[in-house]
Amino acid sequence: xxxxxxxxxxxxxxECTTKNPCSLLCKSLLHKxxxxxxxxxxxxxxxxxxxxxxxxxxxxxxxxxPAKTAVITHGHADHAVSGNYDVYCTRATASVMQLRxxxxxxxxxxxxxxxxxxxxxxxxxxxxxxxxxxxxxxxxMEYEGTRYLYTGDYKLQPDDTCEPIEWVTTDILITESTFxxxxxxxxxxxxxxxxxxxxxxxxxxxxxxxxxSQRLINLISTHVPQKKILVHHRIMPINAIYQxxxxxxxxxQIYGRKLMKVQDEFVYIxxxxxFDSYIRATGVTRLxxxxxxxxxxxxxxxxxxxxxxxxxxxxxxxxxxxxKQIWTLHGDGRHLKAHFNNNxxxxxx
Length: 349
What we know:
This protein has helices spanning 2-9, 23-36, 91-101, 189-193, 212-223, 236-244, 257-260, 272-277, 311-321, 334-340, and strands at residues 46-48, 51-54, 59-61, 69-71, 84-89, 106-111, 118-120, 123-129, 137-143, 146-150, 172-177, 202-206, 228-231, 253-254, 266-270, 284-288, 325-331, 345-348. By secondary structure, it is α/β, with parallel strands linked by helices. The chain has two domains: 46-183 and 309-348, 4-Layer Sandwich (Metallo-beta-lactamase, Chain A), CATH 3.60.15; 189-295, Cobalt-precorrin-4 Transmethylase, domain 1 (3-Layer(aba) Sandwich), CATH 3.40.1010. β7 (118-120) and β8 form a beta hairpin. α3 (91-101) runs antiparallel to α6. It is globular. It starts with a helix and ends with a strand.
């Protein structure tokens, strides 16, 4: 109310006054615009012991502990836990959770398509492609005329193994801030994967089994086609989900020990626990695909391929979604707060 009062009191040389015939019209239009402005609820989502909670719809977003009602953005284990009762998610996310958790994945799966609004309580929800991995979704929540967009994990880089990110405008952008640092700029993934052209020994390539491994198979088979891709047995069932949903990964086969004994430009993709167990492996070049510097094998043998947004990506996201406020989580939002100063309100959840 104070801000509204100040607006009325602030006058420029050309501003209408009570002596000006258009005064009543100007005041009427200003009053109408204020009435139409969205009412942002500071407590629309809050973090408690189970995770990010929306009390206005009585549901959790990617809960860390089992919840009665959960909207889950994607299948990575830090976002999709077992034991929830009602789960709302995409078909790909449900398939991954059922593979990982079997009967404890959820009591009820509510499969939702992209851009198909549904309601939980009094909140209207729409899942928007996030580009992070197959089936990953942003969550657009609309309540009493105000739009809140929770990004989950998301990516702007092109990726043939998942749906590309789509844009919607919002009043509040609730964004991950994993790499929200001006010093973090992800390199071109094609240029990164082409670095293995110069490696003639067999390669032991560490990567997260879900999302990253499938992207690597596609990148290698497309841009470094002379390499022969071997895949750890625990990754193969995930590949099957991707292929069942129509994703073309590229040529690959399950790992065989005899194959790797021959130097024939094999690339053996393994999950992190296997990669760590082969720390003294001989006859191979070890690489780990990640956006994190601390996960690289050394300063020389690097493969910076990330499935998260970097600093420039976040700024582009803000420009495209046009939020009035930015709320950050899953990282450090202090750089964004300093960058926007008072131009856009930034809250760290």
